[in-house]
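Thread title: Can someone regenerate the structure for this chain?

I was given the following input by a collaborator and told the matching structure tokens would be attached. They weren't. Posting the sequence so someone can regenerate them.
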Amino acid sequence: QVQLQESGPGLVKPSQTLSLTCTVSGGSITTNYYFWNWIRQPPGKELEWMGAIAYSGSTYYSPSLKSRTSISRDTSKSQFTLQVSSVTPEDTAVYYCASSHPIYGLGTTDYWGQGTQVTVSS
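Best answer:
Regenerated them for you:
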């Protein structure tokens, strides 16, 4: 069974860059037609899909976050990474990584990490 685990700092200062890593075990991030997503849930709000990296290495982003978001991967470590630049308190949320198949997005997810709280505050 595929397992995902998020890691990274729980507190980020405004204007800095948020960086989170998702480590995947029990599966390969290069498996055909699998996508590796970042999703977040701000307090009191719904889940928001942020972006994904495909098995091929192609990346896809939410239009509302595209200018500040970057997703990359390290296949040798079975990890993929999220970076969000110029953060504000509105980026405070629980951040999740999740796999999906055969396309990216909330509707096709299958395995999820447990989530990690990130707070943006000075």
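The chain has a mean pLDDT of 97.
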